[in-house]
Queue: 3 jobs
Job 1
Amino acid sequence: MRLLQCDEDGGFCLIEDLTEDDLPPYAMLSHRWLAASDEPTFDDLSHNRSQEKLGYQKLRFCAEQARRDGLRYFWVDTCCINKLNKAELSRSITSMFRWYHNAATCYVYLSDVTSQSSDGAKRSDLQSSAWFTRGWTLQELLAPHSVVFYSEDGERLGDKRSLEHQIHEVTAIPQAALQGRPLHRFSVDERLGWMTARETTLEEDKAYSLAGMFDTYLAPVYGEGFALAHKRLLKLVHKRDDCVRDLRLSNPSDDKKRIEHTKGGLLADAYNWIFDHAQYVQWRDNGQRRMLWIRGDPGKGKTMLLCGIINELKNQLAERDVLSYFFCQASDARINNATAVLRGLVLLLIDQQPSLASHVQEEYDRAGKNLFEDGNAWFALSDIFMRMLQDASFRRVYLIIDALDECVDGMDRLLDLIRQTTRVSTKVKWLVSSRNWPSIKEQMASVDDHDEVSLELNADAVSRAVGVFIKHRFLQLSTQKSYSKDLQSIVLRHLYTNAKDTFLWVALSCQYLSKVPVWDTVTKLKRLPPGLDELYAQMWRHICASDNDDLCKSLLSTVAVLYRPATLAELTCVTEALSEVSNDPAAVTSMIEHCGSFLTVREDHVYFVHESAREFLSQAVSSELYPFGKGRVHREIFSRSLQHLSMTLKRDIYSLSAPDINIEDVKRPEPDPLAKSRYSTVYWIAHLCAWYLGLSKDPGSDSHHHLHSIHDFLRIYISALLFSPQRSIIRRWFWHEIPTWLSVKPAVDEDWSACLQTLEGHSSRVSSVVFSGDSSRLASASHDLTVKTWDTSSGQCLQTLKGHSSSVESVVFSGNSSRLASASSDNTVKIWDASSGQCLRTLEGHSSVVSSVVFSADSSRLASASYDRTVKIWDASSGQCLRTLKGHSSWVTSVVFFANSARLASASSNNTVKIWDASSGQFLRTLKGHSSWVTSVVFSSDSSRLASASSDDTVKIWDASSDQCLRTLEGHNMMVTSVVFSGDSSRLASASLDKTVKIWDASSGQCLQTLEGHINVVSSVVSSADSSRLASASYDRTVKIWDASSGQCLRTLVGHSGWVRSVGFSGNSSRLASASLDNTVKIWDASSGQCLQTLEGHNMMVTSVVFSSDSSRLASASLDKTVKIWDASSGQCLQTIEVGRALYRMSFNVTRSSLDTEMGSLPLNVSSSPRSLSLIEDIRHVEGLDIGMSADGLWIKHNSSKIVWLPSERRPSCSDTTAQTVGIGVGNGRVWMCSLIGQDGPKPQSVR
């Protein structure tokens, strides 16, 4: 940011650019621009020409006012931005809101308001000022904390607060927004509405000036128009809202309110003592003290103490300070783990500084909700959290965690993260509370610059706080029971005497006494033992002696092993003792009240009154509570859960109808048929594991996602039936459910394949996989720039290693599996710690892609192969390059050590293998003698046959009604890229990377002609309607027309400036259209070869082109994910369809009402004037489609509805469709077809 600095002599000058961390206090000027020629510019100030401009008086006003306000620096948009520097202008536009927000004050200079008017006239002039009608001034009004209005001669008219009412009247902006309420608290529509009556000189600025108010980064693209800019803005806003919604697991601010309500509210006198405590004051005020640990035994009031501290800090936060906090609770699986803590802390940081969402958004855009929930969630969120803490938008961040001891999963990781943050950021101050656990004390000792507050060592202060609490609770109790003065004295004395400075004992005792008749109070009071454990023991003895002991023990044992607090309704489904009253919430509540004071009901959920109560039951009286062990209780919950689910669950219980509906779009009906089943649905599997394996653990993320697994089951139900092997249990048991309206050919296999799991998660091609030494882990390398490690038993992704700047080509474990090495196209090798994912070394030295990497047997050395034609041997510990082996004449693609590591073998792209001495680097000898994927499929015109082209250099012809391969056509010596039948299907033409086109007899398979002439890859071939001519497109930028009988080249069409990707004849074969990498379509006269028209409009490579049957229309598809329909005579674009992917095969239907593609049919609605149709995602709203593919290749569709989800081994690398059949070529070489049987297709009830 470039500021103007006031000189000692009253002048001012520009200073150098400053980073936002180095900015001094500054003022900002808001004003209406004069004519461009009258405003001083950056260049004017740089060359001392600014005083000549009319607008210079505004600069002088701002400088003088800043001096009067004690400010040396100010900023004015006309001259502090070098607008000739496009990058600086773009950066300034996107930073403007933040600059105004961080300013010490903003001066609004109203050139159309004079100080000569009366006060009433001034108010009128102020409200009618054109400043309130301009677009950019909206953020200049709302972003700064201080906004002061001045007339044209510098008279102060008032500030945003004093003029609040008048501003509200003229702008309709709520007064709360003018008072500083965070803008994200207002709805999107409300904020958009504030701009409605405003104008900007450039139409796009009306959208760009709103970006800061939505805390989004909207890069300016002048010329795109308001509509597109506004659409981009809303897309960013909605993506950010989706991200924050998915991040939210539990809102810590709601948890805080719940805790305070449950404990009867905060008592200031019970926690005020901490604010004068020396350690707290030092932590709060000393910038070097980064950590405060408050520790104490159960029931000492740690949680309420932290609630009070949070409230106090909120009131004391300085400008640009933020506060985030989290409350752990061991009994609730949502908030008892380290990942949940991070999600909560990040959520509250974003809530206070919405711009921080940008740190999450980039990762969320790639991974979606899985970012927060998969096996890598902790590592991803840790990185995001660390970046947030170093953000320049705040000065200091206070982070508070309550009940660290109740973080049952990942507490060590959380403490390690706390240590890291205190070392890398001076902005961070942590405050955590926990019990006096030695394990926590040991780890706290390693945190630099930390202080401790022991509640036991501050007994006097805690005792006084407990005394305040006793008075408060006793007053409530005495009022409720109408105690006499004598009884008041007796009860109060007993509470003071026996509390032992424990808040929880007081709360439980008062709760117990509230249920005792007044006349029996003294007797029962004498039986109240001092201390918490003694009180728990008495409560247990009371239960054992009651008539309801079996009921209470059943309830307590069940609640004690649940993975989260259950609702009353959910509890009835897993507890046999409640089955008779499952529809009577009052009766269930009454039965819970018989459990002494161990349990409490809050907001319809059943909780232990405190974690120490659960621990008492699980430890002190475990043998009585679980006479047959905890496993028996888990078995009972599992058994009752399945019993309940089998009776209540039914197909399509929410009446969703369609199998492809997103879970976010599901609306729960009232009453909700799953209300009672929710806990059982999610956690039955966890209780099964705990019983069967003898475990009692938090199910973690796998079981937490089981509800989503139910959703996935709904989506893939038909697929499971269609693609399960003939002899599988699934197919044998549910054969009657297999859809009768679908046919899959060839028939599915007899038995399951050898594939045990398909690991999905990489976003690009996977280039390498390797097992660890003990086979427990798998590592994969990908062109998405990452390495992933996987658990081979569960298939869970354990880690994602990021650091390479280009595709990762190879990955390998060290011999003991403690390290990983990865080779990349960024010319480096990285060595990683396989446990932590930390990058240990980056080995640099290759000058081209590193294609392969391998450890020696003892892991002391590392060998890498590269496209720079060398192999390098490295010391795996130091990273030093020991040897460079030279001798290959082409790329080295692979390298491996011999078993004894004495020799090394390297393979090259010139089909040779070289053997080397690994110690000396001496070349020993060369070995010679070396030798797939479906690239194109097409139906014959009568749909009776299917032809497929492959990278194995062959073409195959298949019978479309059976699974029989009719012919294998061999003759090409390189990959076959395209195949097409002649109009009468008697011949077949194929194009290849060998630069030739071959014409085959489709019946005999004989090669009739080989058409040679192209000097580069032939990408497409097409037959004329009468089969007399062929046209071929090539990467040599030409199209050739051939005589189909003689094979003679008739014409070579030259004109494209890039590869020609597709070619098509018109219906009468008089014209030819070609699609190219140069983003254009050309129409040619097929006889003369003259270029008739060049159609421009796509902004990326055109992938396919086709004429309608009457030759009046032309369709083109592009990598820009659109299809364009053109008037073939005039070249006018009639329709643009957004299809969400690139298409490679298209044909018009007879009526020109739709376009048949590998996705299915696209409806056309072409009028005489151009129009645009947006197809959302995979054109799900379009009616009248036959069978086809979804845009993402995951679904087969019918009439725009997704009907069959495809497992990974069935997904297309290419496809073609007829009205009733889709033919699919798969990357593994499989070719298969799916057909509709009958004309009606699936019935709604069949696809649920």
Note: The radius of gyration is 37 Å.
Job 2
Amino acid sequence: MSGSIPFYQKHHRHYDRNYRSTEADSKMRHYQSSSRYSAGTSLSTSSRGLKVSSHSGLEENRLSPLPKRSKPSYLALDKENQIIGYVVPIFRGSQEFATGLSDTEEARVRDTAAYMAHRDLFTSGLEMERSEVISRKEAMRESAERISLNKRIHEHEEHFKRMNEDSLMHAPEFVIKPRSHTVWEKQCVRLHCTVSGWPDPRVIWYKNNVAIDPLANPGKFKLESRYNVHSLEINKCDFDDTAQYRVSAMNSQGEQSAFASVVVKRFKGEIDDTLPVPRLGPVSEYGITFQIHIVDTFGVSFGREGETMSLGCTVIIYPALHRYQPEVQWYRDDVLLSPSKWTHMHWSGDRATLTLTHLNKEDEGLYTLRVATKSGYETYSAYVFVKDGDAEVEGAPGAPLDVRCLDANKDYIIVTWKQPAVEGGNAILGYFVDRCEVGTTHWVQCNDTPVKFARFPVTGLVEGRSYIFRVRAVNKTGISHPSRVSEPVAAMDPADRARMRGTSAPWTGQIIVTEEEPAEGIVPGRPRELQVTEATKNYVVLSWKPPGEKGLEGVMYYVEKCVSGTDNWQRVNTEIPVKSPRFALFDLAEGKSYLFRVRCCNSAGVGEPSEPTEAITVGDKLDIPSAPGKVVPTRNTDTSVVVSWEASKDVKDLVGYYIECSIVESDVWEPCNNKPVRATRFICHGLVTGEQYVFRVRAVNAAGLSQFSPISEPVEVKAAIASPAPPYGITVLECVRDAMVLSWKQPTFVGGADITGYFVDYREVVDGVPGKWHEANVKAVSERAYRVSELRENRKYQFQVRAANMAGVGIPSMPSNTFLCEEWTIAVPGPPHDLQVLEVRSDSLVLLWKPPVYQGRDPVNGFYVDIKEGDAPEEDWRGVNTKAAEKTYLKVKDLKEGQTYVLRVRAQNKAGVGKTSDVTEPVLALTKPGTKEIVVEVDDDGVISLNFECSNLTPDSKFVWSKDYEEITDSSRLTIETKGNKSKTVFNSPGEEDIGVYSCLVTHTDGASSSYTLSEEELKRLLEVSHDHKFPIIPLKSDLAVELQEKGRVRFWLQAAQMSSNGKVDYVFNDNVLSQGDVSEMFNSFFMKS
């Protein structure tokens, strides 16, 4: 079939209908229609009652690719211009024409002339039509070629886009964001959004920052995504669906979120006070049980006001699902935190971060990270301390904290705060309260004189406007920094808020729509239950309940006062009555007693007064708390102490306690907390290890700070002793018919004291079912290897190990793998064990191990050490030594700084290389700051010594010297001296027996160790230096001179460059040392001239 296609059509796929595009098909159809039904100018010819006229069924002029000419039409039309057939002209000598037959010659000539005219007209019209058909075909071909070319270009561009995705990638964008809705209960609501982005973004819906899972609540939520339009449908809304919904679109280029609110209203009388029953027990998500591990955690942190602090943890969730996001929440003192300008939260897929943008003392507390899946949750907590910023004036107090607005009316707003822990050089005289209207930066001081009470009603506000507040403390030295500002609050009566309809409620609130028609012309009754809620020497706050009648018109109140013992009632608010059922009175005489009453009023008149209050004496009714009782400090860690105390007695409205500490005999007290704690136990962090501290506590409420408690007994900051953590890594070193030799690794936490021994338990496993545990050893074993006897051959066993120290026996380890008790008969050795890494530096480390218990058929004659990067695959193990090492230690060199490594050891005998040992823990090749090396010294007396210094000692640290990595216990050749953070090993009589590798390890540190190799050449050099120091050569200024004197005397003399008074001179004659006596008299003139 393809062979019959002309060559010029083979390259155009649009000629094949299977590949013809929609545009080409449309062009071809229009062309065929115009060719079939096109018409030119009108021709009217009568033939047998038919009318020939021009007609076009389509608008060919608009569809033709070339300009059209008028063409004759040969359609037969009836009187209503409906097509009923075709008129076919007859040519080539036909004697009948469409007009009929002529009987005369004259008519025949006329018909012949008419025929010729019609023939010429038809021929010219036919030629023109053929020419136009050819032109249209060429135009259609060109148009089809253009369409084909455009299609090929489009396909090429699409291919290029697929091959070059980076050029088109962009972060998601919300073309249409979801819209907030307010609905009634039991209605359905649908949230829509349109998202663009490349690659196609993944869209997730959240309810109050919790991912929505349609499978968790079948039928409640329905998620749809079609053509970049995403929707969330909430079926049969109830009040719990009132929330903030967030839709998050995420791809490889970024993430965008949009928010919408759904408020579900209730009709009056349909409030259900019952709470939804929480779902109990872990629920597997999609049939998967997740395991959560929080690693790389933040520790106890210290900051200062004004600084920025970030807290972060790495979260490992297994199994790892792509883009799965757990529920991540942050708490401070068990209160859930929400994103704000003070706290920013971020989740990167495997790390949760909380950033405190501007630290204040309100930010101090216990921070908890909670990561939850539907399989469970995991938490981690650590304390954050915030110290006061530097005062502008030395001795000024610290800033108050926790400023809040307890009551808000159009007349006043009650502002409360907490006193600071630091009073400065003098006692705090009082506090200034400042206000600022929202939207401005102008702060106005609200009180002219400092108030000592930590509550103050602010008046002079403009009704309906919002304000923020701050507080400053003042003493004789100066004024503190201002506190953190309060949350905005509007100066508006609660009654006005209640009467406002259509006001949006917060997510957890209830929306109740009420409608009452006020009754006109009725004077309100008496207010009820009038009482004094607050009374200080500066102000008194009254509160009451409205009269019992319902639907009264516009009830307002007048407050009256009267001095006790008189009947002279005075109206306090004479100008404007108050609308809210509470009022604050100022300018009362301190020490006087007053009575108060309230009247209701409306447009109908003023009602009867309420019952008066009891006589109230103006003054502070809240007493300062009593001092706390006995304070008991307890050791906790090497930088913290647990402090507990007896609570203050008969205290009202307790805010909390402040704890202070002082180093013994320093008389300088520092605050341990800058935010009051309500408990009677607190952990004081940031203390100096080894120092002795004393503590004191005082209570605080709105009235002020109490006296200090008695000072505690001194306590030394030192880690408390606890039982050790469980050992791990249990393996089998040898197996015979009825016994197994086990080994294990030391616990990661030893409990603050040296481990005194280990206890091993075992149990038999039958058909996968473990039995009861049995003790393998009654007496603790000091080594990390033990032979368990009295086992049964060909039986399976599990083992567990417990470590013990001075505090007791720790919890057992996890049960080991199941091992089969059968005798080993292999020829090669078993695995080495007890691998230990020392002297870690940026380019080297030293690996120690113990030889295998099972030797094989022949004794072990060497060891091979393997190494690989920590995250490298198993096939990347490589040998460190090509020649077998004879000793049980090896120095590994040529490491990359900052790289993590793991190591293992294999033993060999004549039969070959045996099993590999357990792999070490990952080791980071990095020289720690403060690392020292062993230094060799030779003193003036020629004494050779090795010296090592450690800067990070702990109270329990010890220097352990070893030769060839075996602890030195024989003092006949070496003398060890330790003083402070320095230790020295002295060679008593250096000789060839002392050749070897000397190392020093400091216990209870982070691995402080070093080594020194004493070779034969190094020993020879040191002995020469020692001899030179012990027997120094004194340089001479002159040679030995001889002088003959009278009477046969001979004098010998010479002169030395320098010689001390302790110098000794020997006289030698014929290789014999001369001494005092007769012989020396012969040379009594022999002397040294110096």
Note: The domain at 728-821 is CATH 2.60.40.10 (Immunoglobulin-like).
Job 3
Amino acid sequence: MFVHLAKRIAMPNDTPVTKCGWNAFEGYVSAGCADGLVKVLKLEIPEVGDARTRGVAGQAQLTKNQTLEGHTNTISSIAWNERFGKLTTADSGGTVIVWVNGPQNEFVQDMLNNRTKNRISDMKWNSNGQMICIGHEDGNVIIGSVEGSRIAGKSLSDSKLAKVEWSPDSHLLLFGFMRGEIHIYDFKLNYIGQIQIFCIREGVPSAEIAGIEWYDGRNGLMTMNSKSLVICYENGAMQLMSREDDPAPIILDVDMHVASIKWNDNGSMLAVAGYQLTGDKAHNFIHFYSPWGEHLRSLKVTGKSIADCAWEAHSLRLVIAIDNFIYFANCRLDYKWCYIQDTVVYSFYTCSRPEHIVVFWNTKTNEVNYRYVRNLLSLGGFGSYCCIGSFIERGTSTINTADSYVVLLCNSIGVTIESKYIPFHPIYICVTQSYAVIASKSLVFIWGISGFIGSQMVKKQPYEKFIQVDDPAAVRHGDELQLTLMANLDAMETEDPITSLCGSDKWIFIARSSGVVLRYSLPACTLMEKIECQFRISKIALNSIATLISIIDTSGYCMLIDMESKEPREDITNFKKSDVWNVVWATDLPDSFAVMEKTKISLVRGVEVDEAVPCSGYVCEYSNLQVKVVMLDEIMKMHFKGVQAPSPDYITVYDNKLLHDMKTSCEKLPLEQVSSLIEKDPHPQLWRTLAEEALNHLDIKVAEHAFVKIHDYYGLQFLRRLQQFQGEQFKRAEIAAFLKQDDEVEKIYVHMDRKDLAYQLRRKLGDWFRVVQILQSGAIASDAMQNEAWNELGDFYFDRQQWATAAKYYEQSGNNAQLFHCYAYTEDYVALEKLSLSLQDNDPILRSIADTFAGVGLAEPAVDAYKRCNLIQEAVQMCIELSQWDMGIELARQYNLTDLKTLLTRQAKTLLDQNKPFDAIELYKKSANYLEAAKILYGIAENHSKENRPLVMKKKMYVLCGLLIEQYRTAMKTTSRKEKKSAPISASDALQGLLTEETTGSGGVSDTQLLDNVWRPAEAYHFYILAQRQYKSNNAEGALRSALTLTEYEDILPVQTIYNLIAGIVCLHQSIKIRRLLKKHDQQSEDKARLLSNRLHTNLILTYVFGGIIIGVLIMTVLVTFVVGLKGYFKFIFIFAITFHSSQPKDKRPVLSGQCPQCSNRINDWCLNCPSCDWRFPPCIATGRPIIEYGFWICPACKHRALENEMARLDVCPFCHSSVNG
């Protein structure tokens, strides 16, 4: 970078300036003085024009100069609230004033606080401008809102407070005290901790804090690990941190008394202002550092004492407060950019993306291509290629962790041609026709790159060599470096780093900070010469034939060195220019170059310097006696405002003195005389310009002479053709076309009232925007011509992936095929459906539209499109794949498709193979194939019953299976009735049907077994759940009835589970009786309760012992048989039976008045079967009680029964949860 002073403004009455600030949004500069004076200035630079009058090269105008009155003491702090346009000033007497820009564009007081008499040491607004923190010298801190209300306040400590700073997210506050400590608080002023200070060594007296600055990241970060927090002390000790708890900060010593520190607008540069004492004299400096502590530049400023500094919004200017003046300094930034093949390649970054945005802007066609590069480090280019160096974060690279950097070789549209991983930081990149030279501070890598020979891309032999500048004679190949140098890469730091490099296909020049320039030959990489200079080198550049080299030192002086002459040339040795920051050599004149000095450009030929002219741009190239300049500053401003593509206005062309004088001579002298002057100092560009002037004057003779001089055969052919035209206007139109002045040609044709020729011209040029304008302005337009123009415009936007815009033009041209692609790419399916409806049947596009709808799951429009192009089979297949069973089956029935069943079976098998059984069930269900659906579902239910799943889930699965079977039975009945009406069924057909039903389904269950027993598992789980619910609700009798019902489902539920439940319910029943008796509180009831309790206790003991008795009986049977024989064993059994028969137990429960509906014998209500006729009583699904009445309710869905009085209060079936009313 380069920085220089540009303007100085004095304060009234020679009042010293103590503080200054710059509003980045509105451009206002504020200056606070020692007597309480506050000035608000606005120094605007031109925003229109070319590089001569625009930007920092333009004449700055002081458009505002206002004095703010209200302070009487020294201004101690100034803070801009840029988001709300407010200025806050504070003085040493404790007065705080908030100023706001009024309706008359004058700042007026908005708020005033002069109640505190303590000196205000610092104040800062947070990043969003909602809160301000005001710190008093005595430690009192106040946080206020933008509206003026107090949010928080606290007295921090007994030490004096010096600085305050907000974190970027406004969650933390940093407070720096006079003794050097920095405390961390949250925004509610709760103490968190201290920042560890590394830059102050132990034993060194603590210094006062000069500044705490934390870049808020509003415009992005250079890299993800950039340092953004800086802490600096007045003695020059400084540390850079990425966050408040950064364990590895960067430590610096700026070696001066620091007065102020400020980050620029995007965190890429830190300005440190202060002074150095040399004896009794103080020298004021501003040092500029990168976020990693690298020194970039120093600016010396005259004056006694520097007080403060502040950056402009785009880092192009800096305001400096010294004595009673404020200085404005211009900054020429080092952008990462290059120029290749009429293309400007540059990079920038924003807060919205983590990557750098690399822009490839073709200045001829104005086409722009973007590439996103994470952690961009360097960029360089030449000819047709550019190289991009970047850092690869750990965890994102698939290569060895040592190779942490990559260099990408790209063409002029940003496409990567080659890439190379390197193990060091690529700081400098120089590209020649055959090589890419990449350098760090101590290593140089020469990489042979591919190139074009003619129109073919030729891959050259691999060429990779490394040079270590501290050991110039040692040159290693890439593999050798990996094995030898990488082990000691950390030890390769040098005290004399590389500062610049340049080269050609034969030579490489490497400049070092000490002033040494190393010259290597290529391809051998042999050190040929070491040139020692007596100054520190900043930048070097080589001419086109490698005979002259320009050197710029750190002070901005430019010198030349002759690399060919053995003896020093006096003119070269004496050449020197000051305040130079860049030199670009001409590509066709080896002794000519352009020099950028401050905000001017000078063109030099030999040692003769043309008059410097203003220039705010950066030189792209110097060729054909012209210098092309790009205004990168304005382009960066454009991107900051959100504009994506630059315009041709950002390119400016300067003519050198020779070309400028020739053009002036053409205006004053005859062309023949000008031709004679060119003969004395010829150049192809001069002859070319003379030919153009001669053509404009219709001087064929001079034009022919000029074309002969430059061997322009095409130009000579044009002159011969030109003489065949009749009429001056036609000739001038052809000349303008030859000179590529298309607008001038069209203007001539329109003036001649020949819009047809203008139309043909623009059509031939492919300028379809102008074609449309011409057609709309005249009567020559036909429908075919209009449609062609609209269609070409649609193709223009379609090729650039702007499909929504392209669709508008295709719609006007009636290009339905391309319109379909636009709608598909933009996913505008509403418009696509309208397009489908507008097409005629059997249109070729309908098939593509239908496939597009099917691909995104839009079944209805897809079916409509398939039907209109007679693809019914594809429509049915799509419906089945999208699970639109109803639509697919209806479509098949509508068009009488005979292979629907085969198609459904195949799809169901596919779904089963894809482990989608429920989709297959739904498919079978929609196609009325309920039996197959039931088979699949029954298999799933069987698997669930073997797993540890909820009982309700198991029941649901079996219930759904049963409902499918009921639907199957209903469908079979309907089909049977229809068949009986149509034709009688023979006995053989009936038998065949019965045999068919015996086929086994899934899980080894036959169709007959499934039809007969499908409800049994569901009934088992239903009554099991019902019994447990009744048990938990203390309904012991109901639970016992439901549990006794489970004895008929011992093949489904474990027997142990059933009888454990029965035993538990019996115990519950007895305990309920006991509790009821005890509630009566009389002696008789208590005796009965005690008797029941003893009996329950005895039954439990007997139940526990029952298992042991069974085992004992078995053992006794074996022993008795062995001792008394088989006859004695039967005798023993007979005696045992007589004994128990005489004293068998009696059932003391009362006999109910129920009777069997089959045999009319009286029975108990707990009987599941009639003891006389063995008639089975169906259980009630609501209560579990056997139904012995004649009147009951039957579910219309599952066909299960329930008592009518129980169903009177229910709306759904307790078993299948279907509606009671069906």
Note: Residues 397-401, 990-1004, 1107-1145, 1149-1153 have pLDDT under 50 and may be disordered.
